[in-house]
Structures are given as structure tokens and as C-alpha cells.
Amino acid sequence: MTPKSKNAELGLFIILTSLFIAALITCNLIANKFVSINLGFKTFIVSAGILPYPITFLITDILSEIYGRKMTNKVVISGFFASMMVLLFLWIGSQPNALESSPVSNETYNTVFRNAWRVMAASMIAYLSAQFLDVRLFHFWKNLTKGKHLWLRNNASTVGSQFVDTTLVICVLFVGEWSTAAIIQAIIDGWTFKMLCALIDTPIFYMTSSFLRSKFNLKLNEEVVL
What we know:
By secondary structure, the protein is mostly helical. The chain has helices at about 5-30, 55-65, 70-95, 105-115, 115-145, 150-175, 180-215, and strands at about 35-40, 45. Helix 2 (about 55-65) runs antiparallel to helix 3 (about 70-95), helix 2 (about 55-65) runs parallel beside helix 7 and helix 5 (about 115-145) runs antiparallel to helix 6 (about 150-175).
């Protein structure tokens, strides 16, 4: 392994980690807005935060495939601490009164971020559970198939982890606020939408993994060691 190749492997790891954390934090910041997405055969009522969330699972699958379980779990933990820091500064930002000339008033700030604590608490509970489960399931299927069938571990790991994520988030946020029927429907809509996203990103996962294996000269089931 040449120093140049090692730098490329490390550089890509840092880029993927950065994209993962950016997508994760964006999910939390826009999660309070609910939107309607019409795909023709069905209209989904979902949180806007669900839109960038599939990117986090695609990135952890790529990291798991190329860098292994240990390094991927470190990225998951990094995302948790980054989110906690954002939450801290959202709270700090709410403490001083806004100036009269401020384009954002106290009321506007609090309206946008008033549910940040609950949203991020729900998100982090679901996030840690789902992401660690996703990584564990990914490597379970990877070991079982001896590194073959990328589509299987990409989708099989996501099915279970996204169901856990969706259920935990909806339940923590809305138990006692919404009816049982509304909560169940929200879980079904959220999970189904995420599954469609997982199917869409499967070709991206295939192409990216194949390219990186070729670039880093990795054999089947071999992983980069940083």
C-alpha cells in the first residue's frame, strides 16, 4: 500500500463521514415540517426530515462494505455527538433576546426550534438503535453470503433498521398526541417510503462499491484498514 493510496482511502472516509453527519443533522433540523409526497400510486404523508435520511443508510452501507464494521460504528457515534452539539447550541441560541433589528425574532426562532429537544431526543434514540442494527445486519448478511449478493445485504439490513427507526421516532414524538390509527399510518407511510428509497439507492450502492473496490484493489470480502 503506497502513501498515496492510503491518503486516498483516508480522504474518502473523511468525505463520507462529513456527508453522513451533514445529512443526519439536516434531518433533525427540518423534521418538524410534514409534507405530502405524491408518487402516483400513493400519496405519502411524511416528515421533511425523512427526505435526507436514506442518504445516511446508503453511506453507512458503503462504509460497512469498504471500511468494515468497526470504522462504521465510529462514524455512527460521531454523528450522535455532532447532533448533541447542535442541540446544545440551539438551546444557547434561544437564551439571549433578539435585537429589534434582528431579522429573526424570539418568536420566530422558538416557533422553528421549539420542538428541537423532543425531535432530537426521539431521533437520537431511533438513530443509535437503527444505525447500529443496520451495521450489524449488514455484516451478518455479508458474512453469511461470503461477500456476495450486495443487493441482499444492502436491502435486508435496511428493511429491519428502518422499521425500528420509523417506529421509535413516531412513537416517541406522537404517543399521547395522535390517535393510535394515525400513529400506525405514519409508521407505515414512513417505513414504506424509506423502503422505496432503499430500492432506488441499490444501483448507486452497487456502482459505488464496485468502483471503490477496484480503486483500492480490494478482493471480495476484503476491507480497507485505516
